[in-house]
Specification:
Elements lengths: L12 E7 L5 E3 L2 E5 L11 E13 L10 E6 L4 E5 L8 H18 L7 E5 L11 E6 L9 E3 L3 H6 L11 E4 L9 E5 L1 H4 L18 E4 L22 E6 L6 E2 L8 E8 L10 E12 L2
Antiparallel strand pairs: 1-16, 2-3, 3-15, 4-13, 4-14, 4-16, 5-6, 5-9, 7-8, 8-10, 11-12, 11-15
């Protein structure tokens, strides 16, 4: 009796390296790579992203985003609007310190009766806080509380400052701030995914076949700033690498080479990632294999 088995070999594999700086035209979020010869030729039937590196230096606070101003109104009717002068990459602590300083500069130019002094504190008006910080206001006479309201705006929403239905308060808690510009970005290449029989799906209104979705989140708990708020990935410049043990497998026609590649990067609002307000590049390794 012959007990010999059927020889099994692993499929042949190759790597396809993609670097956004190799683009022939466009920006890192919308570009084309063209070479004199085919980029990839051979009898492969599967492609999958196994590694991606992102070099991110996009601002999370800027006039383009519209989240660089904050307006407050004192109970005595004075209105102060402050603008973070420099677009940039801010932590929550950095924004709060800048807001307090700018509000006090504005108050010095147009002081209310009794004066006003804005501070960031976790023990507002002698009351022990719940762990978060407060934007508080005191006057110049015995540090008496001064009531104010925060007007609606994008920065107010991101800082989680409460509107309180227009009711004035002397201490506004900053409970769950989030200054992320984007929650995620999708790297798309229809030159690769168009043959894909099994299409991607999403609960979002914008659905595309995606090579890889980069979620702006650290693999470990986020570091914290001087006020104890998380520094989420994307607040400041970072370079991070992710290796995918189980990549998405993209079907490919074995008789067809890859002659040109066009890549786009879309954000969580379904729009192309803007090429302004800082820099962004990425590299990918795609594993190419037989059936």
């Amino acid at each position: 009796m012959d007990h010999s088995g059927t020889p099994i070999r692993f499929p042949s594999t190759a790597n396809l390296y993609v670097d956004s700086v190799d683009r022939s035209s466009g920006s890192s979020s919308d570009f084309t790579i063209t070479k004199q010869q085919n980029i990839l030729a051979g009898f492969f039937t599967r492609l999958g992203v196994v590694e991606i590196v992102v070099d991110w230096c996009k601002y999370n606070i800027s006039s383009q985003i519209g989240n660089n101003t904050l307006t407050i109104t004192l109970a005595s009717s004075e209105v102060y609007t402050v603008t973070l002068i420099a677009d940039g990459s801010y932590t929550v602590a950095g924004v709060l310190d800048a807001i307090a300083a700018l509000l006090n500069e504005a108050v010095a130019l147009n002081p209310p009766a009794g004066g006003a002094n804005f501070i960031i504190t976790n023990t507002p008006l002698g009351i022990i806080g719940g762990g978060e910080q407060y934007l508080a206001c005191l006057n110049d006479v015995g540090d008496t509380p001064v009531d104010f309201t925060v007007q609606a705006g994008k920065l107010q929403t991101q800082l989680d400052l409460q509107l309180n239905g227009g009711v004035a308060t002397s201490a506004n808690p900053i409970t769950c701030p989030n200054l992320l510009r984007y929650k995620y970005m999708d790297i798309v290449c229809s030159n690769i995914t168009y043959q894909q029989g099994l299409k991607d799906a999403s609960t979002s209104n914008a659905t595309r076949d995606v090579l890889y979705r980069w979620n702006f989140a650290w693999d470990t708990p986020a570091p914290v700033d001087t006020y104890g708020y998380p520094i989420f990935q994307g607040y400041q410049r970072f370079m991070a690498r992710r290796y995918l043990s189980f990549p998405k497998q993209v079907k490919w026609n074995a008789d067809q080479p890859i002659g040109q590649l066009s890549f786009q990067v879309y954000t969580d609002d379904g729009q192309l990632l803007t090429s302004s307000n800082g820099e962004f590049e990425y590299q990918m390794t795609l594993l190419v294999s037989e059936q």
